[in-house]
UniProtKB/TrEMBL annotation:
<dbReference type="Pfam" id="PF01546">
    <property type="entry name" value="Peptidase_M20"/>
</dbReference>
<keyword id="KW-0862">Zinc</keyword>
<keyword id="KW-0170">Cobalt</keyword>
<feature type="domain" description="Peptidase M20 dimerisation">
    <location>
        <begin position="203"/>
        <end position="315"/>
    </location>
</feature>
<keyword id="KW-0479">Metal-binding</keyword>
<keyword id="KW-0032">Aminotransferase</keyword>
<dbReference type="GO" id="GO:0046872">
    <property type="term" value="F:metal ion binding"/>
</dbReference>
<keyword id="KW-0808">Transferase</keyword>
<dbReference type="GO" id="GO:0008483">
    <property type="term" value="F:transaminase activity"/>
</dbReference>
<dbReference type="InterPro" id="IPR010182">
    <property type="entry name" value="ArgE/DapE"/>
</dbReference>
<protein>
    <submittedName>
        <fullName>Diaminopimelate aminotransferase</fullName>
    </submittedName>
</protein>
<dbReference type="InterPro" id="IPR002933">
    <property type="entry name" value="Peptidase_M20"/>
</dbReference>
<dbReference type="InterPro" id="IPR036264">
    <property type="entry name" value="Bact_exopeptidase_dim_dom"/>
</dbReference>
<dbReference type="InterPro" id="IPR050072">
    <property type="entry name" value="Peptidase_M20A"/>
</dbReference>
<comment type="similarity">
    <text>Belongs to the peptidase M20A family.</text>
</comment>
<dbReference type="Pfam" id="PF07687">
    <property type="entry name" value="M20_dimer"/>
</dbReference>
<keyword id="KW-0378">Hydrolase</keyword>
C-alpha cells in the first residue's frame, strides 16, 4: 500500500495538469463523418503531442481507412507502459476520442467547444463522454512514470475512434485487422459508464438494433389527397403499431439491467415536405432498440418486416402503374449481446477490492442498455467491465466532467495496475 499511497499523492499533485489537458482536448470537435464532420484526426494528433515526451515504452497508431474523414483515416492509439512481468496478464483501459454533435446550441450556456471551468466542473461537449476518462487514464500512468514506479501488470491505454457510431473504424476494426493485439488473459476496463459514487460495475449489455423505416407514397397537394398517397400517414400508422407490437411481444423483465425491460424508441424522423399544404410522398423514422439478451434481433427484424407487408396491404393503391406504398427496413447498427462477464472474474474482483481500499465502498454488478467497447471483448471471451464515476451528463446540453471524479478515477485506475 505504501507504493499506492505515493501514486495517489502524485495524482493529487497532477490535478492542475489534468484539468488543462481536458480543456485542450475538449476544444477539438472530434465528431464522426456520419454526422458530416471530419472525425478524430486532429484530436488524435493533439493527444500524441501531449504524450510525446512521456516515457511510454511503446506508442502505436493504427489508422482505419475512411475516405470521408480528414486525411482519409480514423486513428486508434495504443500506449504501453510495461509492468514488472511483461508476459503476464495486461490491463487495458479503453477510452474513445470521438464525441457526439452538440445538438441544439441554444440550450448550451456556453460554446460546446470552448470549455468553461466552473464550480469544480469542466463544461463542454465530450467533457464527461469520454474526456474525463481519457485524462484519468493518462495521469494514472503519468503519476507512476513521475515516481519511476513500474506497475505489477503492463498497462495498455487505448484511445480509439468511432465509439459513438458503432466502432466500425475503432475497436471492432482493430480486432478484425489486428487480432494479435489481444490475449485471453487480458484484464479490460472500459471507463465509459457508471454512477455518481462509483459503486456500479457493468458486466452485461443489451443487444442493440437501430433501423430506419423508409415509406414511399406519392406527393400531392394536401387539398387533393385522393390523387396521391400520404407517406406521412402510412409511417405514423406503421410506427404506432410497431411500437405496440414490440413492447407487448418482447416485454419480459430482467432485474440485472436498468431499465429492466427491452426498450424500443422511435427517435429520428425525416420528410421532404416544407410547406403545410404538401402531403409528402416520402417519410422516414428511426427506431433505437435495446433488447434483453434472451431475445433474438433476427425475430424483431422479422416482425418489423412482416408488419410492413400488412401496412402496405392496408393502404395499397395503384398510382401511375405502380403499387404503393413501399415500406423498406434499413439496419443502421446491429450488435447481438455476448455472454456477460462473470461476476467472479479477476477484473471484477480486483475492481471491487480497489474500491473497498480507496473509497470504503461495496460496488454492485449489473447490466445496462447502452453499448460499449466491453461487448467486443466479451465476444472474444475476454472479461471486461464498464466502470467510472459519472454524473451522467453525456450527450446533454451543458455536459460537464466533475474534476474530483476525474482525479479519484485516476487513483482507481492506477491501483488496478499496481495491486
Amino acid at each position: 500500500m505504501e507504493i499506492l499511497d505515493k501514486v495517489v499523492r502524485e495524482i493529487e499533485n497532477l490535478k492542475g495538469d489534468m484539468v488543462r489537458t481536458l480543456v485542450e482536448l475538449i476544444k477539438i470537435p472530434a465528431i464522426s463523418p456520419d454526422y458530416g464532420y471530419e472525425g478524430e484526426y486532429d484530436k488524435a494528433q493533439k493527444l500524441l503531442e501531449i504524450i510525446k515526451d512521456w516515457p511510454f515504452d511503446k506508442v502505436e497508431v493504427y489508422n482505419a481507412p475512411d475516405e470521408r474523414a480528414k486525411n482519409g483515416v480514423r486513428p486508434n492509439i495504443l500506449a504501453y507502459y510495461y509492468g514488472e512481468n511483461p508476459e503476464g496478464p495486461r490491463l487495458w483501459i479503453l477510452t474513445h476520442l470521438d464525441v457526439v454533435p452538440p445538438g441544439d446550441i441554444g440550450k448550451w450556456e456556453s460554446d460546446p467547444f470552448k470549455p468553461v471551468i466552473k464550480d469544480g466542473k469542466v463544461y463542454g461537449r465530450g467533457s464527461e463522454d469520454n474526456g474525463q476518462s481519457i485524462v484519468a487514464s493518462l495521469y494514472a500512468v503519468k503519476a507512476m512514470m513521475n515516481l519511476g514506479i513500474r506497475p505489477k501488470r503492463t498497462v495498455i491505454l487505448a484511445f480509439v475512434s468511432d465509439e459513438e457510431t458503432g466502432s466500425k473504424y475503432g475497436i471492432d476494426w482493430l480486432m478484425k485487422e489486428h487480432p494479435e493485439l489481444f490475449k485471453k488473459d487480458d484484464l479490460v476496463l472500459v471507463p465509459d459508464g457508471g454512477n455518481g459514487d462509483g459503486t456500479f460495475i457493468e458486466v452485461a449489455e443489451k443487444s442493440i438494433l437501430w433501423f430506419r423505416v423508409k415509406v414511399r407514397g406519392k406527393q400531392v397537394h394536401a387539398s387533393m389527397p385522393n390523387k396521391g398517397l400520404n407517406a406521412h400517414r402510412v409511417a405514423l400508422d406503421y410506427a404506432y403499431h410497431l411500437d405496440k407490437l414490440l413492447h407487448e411481444k418482447y416485454g419480459d423483465r430482467d432485474e440485472l439491467f436498468e431499465p429492466a425491460e427491452s426498450t424500443f424508441e422511435p427517435t429520428m424522423v425525416k420528410g421532404p415536405a416544407d410547406s403545410p399544404n404538401i402531403a409528402p410522398g416520402e417519410h422516414e423514422v428511426v427506431f433505437d432498440c435495446r433488447v434483453l439478451p434472451k431475445y433474438r434481433l433476427y425475430d424483431i427484424l422479422a416482425d418489423a418486416k412482416k408488419l410492413a407487408k400488412e401496412v402496405e396491404a392496408r393502404y395499397r393503391k395503384e398510382l401511375d402503374g405502380e403499387l404503393l406504398p413501399k415500406i423498406e427496413i434499413e439496419v443502421l447498427q446491429r450488435l447481438d449481446a455476448p455472454a456477460p462477464t462473470d461476476p467472479d472474474s479477476e477484473i471484477v474482483r480486483l475492481l471491487q477490492e480497489v474500491l473497498r481500499r480507496l473509497r470504503g465502498k461495496e460496488a454492485k454488478v449489473g447490466g445496462i442498455g447502452g453499448g460499449t467497447f466491453a461487448a467486443f471483448f466479451r465476444k472474444l471471451g475476454i472479461p471486461a467491465v464498464v466502470w467510472a464515476t459519472l454524473d451522467e451528463t453525456a450527450h446533454q446540453p451543458n455536459e460537464y466532467a466533475k474534476i474530483d471524479n476525474m482525479v479519484e478515477d485516476a487513483k482507481v485506475m492506477a491501483a488496478l495496475a499496481l495491486l
